[in-house]
């Protein structure tokens, strides 16, 4: 572990993983994804030649994370246009692939608007496809820039809220380069803290039921050379009780107009623990994740995932029973029903601050959120 006073040079940091990229081989443009369902054991890429393949990748979480879903949506529209498919139909299919993450629809709408604007201005098929791709690439750049800004704002906030010295940060799910065009959201703040020599320990929730913390955050933390420890989700309370957590950092899949935050299921109990133990609970997300059209957290549609994700382990994505999966390990009696929401909602009064690329909002109020987004 780095000494708390040691600053780690920026050029010592490893190059972040590339979760998504556009390529144009002779046979036609493709969208290449790092298959996150195979990590950390295997770094395998998925090559999407059409939108149905991309939609399946989104639904099975081969590509995931709010900002990255926005990029996937935008590039998906560009892919449909470049390949000569029905762009409006492709856009609708992409936007409906996962209902809770607002960035997916945001990315789709931006690329689709660029496509239709080009058509209205007299562009041919190739010109309209190029316009959609240009917009997707612009969104990609914006996301990378937002990631860097959030990292700096979050690092400064921790320095303001916490005593001098090293920090012990707890994070949930995965919020690094695997969910972003840059270094991520909450993980980017932890990475900036690490480079400044202030990260004593990154506590990583395993994040049930799909283990994005165990599989993905440890993968990124190890690449970054962080001091980190994995814990089962239900062990977090004992860490708080022992005084081993200085702050909680999470991302967000949707932030309602009142400041309520929808994030990977398990975030709400962490917020309750943090409030009880007087620990800052910080949400890191770009303003594109804010949905001012959704008035309050109770109105956010929560995605319900298949029960087999709870009752089995090791089964291929998309299968619903051990017999069909051909190798999945049964964790519950055959036929057991499972409650498996993908997200829960943290009310604004439990959120210490929301860190965005435009600055920090604290306290979290609806009015303050609107002003921040209007900047």
Compact overview of the structure:
The chain has 375 residues and is α/β, with parallel strands linked by helices. It is 39% helix and 16% strand.
Outline the structure in words:
With 375 residues, the protein is α/β, with parallel strands linked by helices. It is 39% helix and 16% strand. The protein has a 7-stranded mixed sheet, with helices on both faces. Strands 11-8-9-14 form a 4-stranded mixed sheet, covered by helices on one side. Helix 7 links the parallel strand 5 and strand 6. Helix 3 packs antiparallel against helix 4. The two termini are 39 Å apart.
- Based on Cα principal axes, name the global outline: globular
Strand order of the largest sheet: 6-5-4-7-10-15-16
> How many helical stretches?
12
What's the count of strands? Answer: 16
Instruction: Calculate the mean pLDDT score and round it.
Output: 92
The proportion of strand residues reads 15-25%
Biggest pleated sheet: 7 strands, mixed
Radius of gyration: 20 Å
Going by helix content, strand content and strand pairing, the class is: alpha/beta
Give the terminus-to-terminus CA distance. 39 Å
The secondary-structure element order is: EEEHHHHHEHEHEHEEEHEEHEHEEEEH
Helix fraction, binned, reads 25-40%
Uncertain regions spanning at least 5 consecutive residues: 1-13, 317-326
Can you lay out the helices and strands and say which pair or pack?
Elements: E1 20-23, E2 30-34, E3 45-48, H1 51-59, H2 66-83, H3 87-95, H4 102-120, H5 125-161, E4 167-171, H6 186-195, E5 199-205, H7 212-224, E6 228-231, H8 236-241, E7 247-250, E8 254-256, E9 261-264, H9 267-276, E10 281-284, E11 290-291, H10 308-311, E12 312-313, H11 322-325, E13 329-330, E14 343-346, E15 353-356, E16 359-361, H12 366-374
Parallel strand pairs: 4-5, 4-7, 5-6, 7-10, 8-11, 10-15
Antiparallel strand pairs: 1-2, 2-3, 8-9, 9-14, 12-13, 15-16
Helix pairs in contact: 2-3, 2-4, 2-5, 3-4, 4-5, 5-6
């Amino acid at each position: 572990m780095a000494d708390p006073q040691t600053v780690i040079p920026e050029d010592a940091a490893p190059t972040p993983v590339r979760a998504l990229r556009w390529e144009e081989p002779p046979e036609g443009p493709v969208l290449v994804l790092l298959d996150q369902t195979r990590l950390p054991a295997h770094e395998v890429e998925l090559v999407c030649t059409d939108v149905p393949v991309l939609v399946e990748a989104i639904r099975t979480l081969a590509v995931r994370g709010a900002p990255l879903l926005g990029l996937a949506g935008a590039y998906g529209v560009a892919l449909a246009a470049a390949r000569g498919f029905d762009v409006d139909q492709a856009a609708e299919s992409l936007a409906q692939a996962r209902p809770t993450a607002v960035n997916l629809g945001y990315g789709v709408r931006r690329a689709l608007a660029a496509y239709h604007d080009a058509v209205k201005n007299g562009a041919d098929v190739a010109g309209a496809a190029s316009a959609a791709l240009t917009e997707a690439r612009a969104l990609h750049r914006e996301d990378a820039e937002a990631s860097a800004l959030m990292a700096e704002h979050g690092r400064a906030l921790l320095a303001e809220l916490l005593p001098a010295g090293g920090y012990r940060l707890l994070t949930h799910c995965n919020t690094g380069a695997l969910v972003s065009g840059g270094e991520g959201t909450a993980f980017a703040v932890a990475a900036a803290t690490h480079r400044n020599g202030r990260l004593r320990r990154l506590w990583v929730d395993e994040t049930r039921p799909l283990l994005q913390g165990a599989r993905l955050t440890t993968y990124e933390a190890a690449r970054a050379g962080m001091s980190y420890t994995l814990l089962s989700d239900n062990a977090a309370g004992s860490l708080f009780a022992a005084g081993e957590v200085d702050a909680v950092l999470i991302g967000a899949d949707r932030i309602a107009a009142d400041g309520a935050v929808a994030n990977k299921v398990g975030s709400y109990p962490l917020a309750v623990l943090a409030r009880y133990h007087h620990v800052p609970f910080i949400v890191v997300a770009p303003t594109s994740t804010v949905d001012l059209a959704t008035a309050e957290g109770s109105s956010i549609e929560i995605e319900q995932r298949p029960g087999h994700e709870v009752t089995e382990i090791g089964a291929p994505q998309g299968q619903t029973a051990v017999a069909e999966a051909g190798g999945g390990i049964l964790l519950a009696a055959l036929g057991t029903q499972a409650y498996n929401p993908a997200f829960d909602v943290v009310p604004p009064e439990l959120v210490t601050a929301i860190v965005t690329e435009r600055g920090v909002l604290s306290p979290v109020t609806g009015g303050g959120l609107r002003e921040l987004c209007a900047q």
